[in-house]
């Protein structure tokens, strides 16, 4: 399932493909949206942003296209006259003189005025996006100590999109491991040193996953595995999806737990 870094990378690819290119054709699968398609003809995309799993495509007339990636939706970039071969259902296509961007399998698509985004029923409930909103470790420390978050276990809190948007299952396990914290710990139980480390780890892990296409493992731990020819799954993460394998740091066996109805991986020695 895509998480914040994957959505941010998708937004960046879409932006590089479309920004500053006038739209020649706009097509929506939904009749109510198709009625507004003409309002985008000749317009240019000025930015493509993301917030959690939502992509926000901004146009030069102040309109914003909202699309939620959900579980299966996918943007495909292609030449105008060469649509991709896929069995997915086409929901939206933006076409320039020689390029096109097609959105498949999405069900949550809408058009808004930029000034009305604060009232969007999904976006207004989200916490900050660690990548898009340039969150600092100090911001994380302050937010996790808010009364509505500070007593909650980190294992559930890190998946709560009201706290921070874009953190999913693999990032949660990796962040807690690198911070040396068990999932049942709460922000209020952390020392200042632990809180500072958690803030730094959350920001750094999200940034690494973005820059390295979902890889969160340390170079020193993954490089020998890569050189041995092991598949990406074997070296991508430090603990996630590695139950029963040895911890890179201490050699203990990685454990698999269920926290907030989702699988979580941890080192019983490194995390306390």
Automatic annotation (TrEMBL):
Domain FPG-type: 238-272
Domain of life: Bacteria
Listed EC numbers: 4.2.99.18
UniProt domain Formamidopyrimidine-DNA glycosylase catalytic: residue ranges: 2-101
SMART domains (alphabetical): Fapy_DNA_glyco (SM00898), H2TH (SM01232)
Pfam families hit by this protein: Fapy_DNA_glyco (PF01149), H2TH (PF06831)
GO BP: any one term: base-excision repair
Enzyme class: lyase
Keywords attached to this entry: DNA damage, DNA repair, DNA-binding, Endonuclease, Glycosidase, Hydrolase, Lyase, Metal-binding, Multifunctional enzyme, Nuclease, Zinc, Zinc-finger
Entries under Gene3D superfamilies matching the protein: 1.10.8.50, MutM-like, N-terminal (3.20.190.10)
Gene Ontology MF terms in the entry: class I DNA-(apurinic or apyrimidinic site) endonuclease activity; damaged DNA binding; oxidized pyrimidine nucleobase lesion DNA N-glycosylase activity; zinc ion binding
NCBIfam families for the chain: PRK10445.1
Similarity remark: Belongs to the FPG family.
Protein's UniProt name: DNA-(apurinic or apyrimidinic site) lyase
UniProt source species: Franzmannia pantelleriensis
């Amino acid at each position: 399932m895509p998480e914040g870094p994957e959505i941010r990378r998708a937004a960046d690819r879409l932006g590089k493909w479309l920004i500053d290119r006038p739209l020649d054709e706009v097509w929506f699968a939904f009749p109510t949206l198709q009625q507004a398609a003409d309002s985008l003809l000749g317009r240019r995309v000025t930015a493509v942003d993301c917030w959690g799993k939502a992509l926000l495509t901004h146009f030069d007339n102040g309109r914003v296209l909202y699309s939620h990636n959900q579980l299966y939706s996918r943007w495909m970039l292609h030449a105008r006259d060469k649509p991709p071969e896929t069995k997915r259902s086409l929901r939206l296509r933006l076409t320039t003189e020689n390029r096109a961007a097609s959105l498949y399998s999405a069900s949550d698509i809408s058009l808004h005025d930029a000034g009305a985004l604060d009232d969007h029923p999904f976006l207004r409930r989200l916490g900050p996006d660690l990548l898009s909103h340039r969150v600092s470790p100090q911001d994380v420390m302050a937010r996790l100590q808010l009364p509505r978050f500070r007593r909650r276990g980190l294992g559930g809190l890190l998946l709560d999109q009201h706290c921070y948007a874009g953190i999913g299952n693999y990032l949660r396990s990796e962040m807690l491991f690198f911070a040396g914290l068990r999932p049942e710990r709460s922000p209020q139980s952390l020392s200042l040193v632990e809180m500072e480390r958690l803030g730094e780890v959350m920001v750094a892990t999200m940034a690494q996953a973005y820059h390295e296409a979902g890889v969160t493992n340390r170079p020193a731990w993954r490089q020998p595995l890569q050189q041995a020819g092991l598949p990406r799954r074997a070296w991508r993460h430090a603990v996630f999806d590695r139950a029963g394998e040895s911890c890179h740091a201490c050699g203990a066996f990685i454990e698999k737990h269920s926290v907030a109805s989702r699988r979580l991986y941890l080192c019983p020695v490194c995390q306390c």
